[in-house]
Specification:
With about 210 residues, this protein is α+β, with helices and mostly antiparallel strands. It has two domains: about 150 residues, Adenine-n6-DNA-methyltransferase TaqI, Chain A, domain 2; about 55 residues. Helices cover about 35% and strands about 20% of the residues. A four-stranded antiparallel sheet has the order 2-10-7-8. It has a three-stranded mixed sheet with strand order 6-3-9, with no helix packed on it.
């Protein structure tokens, strides 16, 4: 079924274009079990800027009578707990590994064919959706966004052509921000080196006077 995009952008609920599920219900700390073939993604393994750091993910053991849901390319991870709710697209998975999400995530899968996962993740991270999440989040100390609330998120779906343009612009901006951060970092290293040289010269001058 194609979304009607002949006149204007569609405004739908998230549940109309994607299937939502909870992360795997690990109890307590996720155990590290090497060579298990199963990788767990936790909150500390990803960021809105860099995506998923696969090298920091641990292999673990999943025991469940009902089995477990494996993540795949094109799925979206959404951080459901805490003050910072954001979405990250899974653009690839490690070879010969099964991947599961920690319980702090909601998983968006089976995304409609007329919706790019990268566009959907980008949209969920924008101010309009973020204000909705902040308003609807439950809990006073540790906030949590329920799946039902996420399912009802209003989503604007433009044409695929427009989605591709937005994703391209977003990726370009991220790359520019990455380069800018590296330039700033290199500049700080240079200034620190200059300062160290100045202090070293001052110490040598003091020694000579003594």
């Amino acid at each position: 079924m194609l979304l009607n995009q002949t006149k204007s952008d569609n405004i739908l609920k998230l549940k109309e274009i994607s299937k939502l599920s909870a992360g795997h219900p690990f109890r307590g700390k996720i155990p590290e079990v090497k060579n298990s073939g199963v990788i767990a993604i936790q909150m500390k393994n990803l960021s809105i800027d860099s995506g998923i750091d696969w090298n920091s993910c641990v292999e673990t053991e999943v025991t469940s009578k009902r089995g477990f849901k494996c993540l795949k390319e094109g799925d979206i991870l959404f951080t459901a707990r805490g003050d910072n709710n954001f979405a990250v697209t899974i653009d690839k998975t490690p070879d010969n590994k099964q991947v599961v999400a920690a319980p702090q995530f909601h998983v968006l899968s089976s995304i409609h064919e007329d919706v790019m996962p990268e566009y959907l993740a980008w949209l969920l991270n924008q101010k309009h959706c973020q204000r909705y999440f902040q308003r609807e989040a439950a809990g006073s100390l540790t906030k949590s966004l329920r799946i039902k609330t996420l399912e009802d998120t209003p989503i604007t779906v433009p044409s695929l052509k427009k989605q591709k343009t937005i994703v391209k612009l977003s990726n370009t901006l991220k790359q520019e921000q990455k380069i800018l951060k590296q330039i700033i970092h290199n500049g700080e290293i240079t200034m620190n080196a200059i300062a160290n040289d100045l202090f070293a010269s001052e110490r040598e001058t003091v020694k000579e006077k003594n």
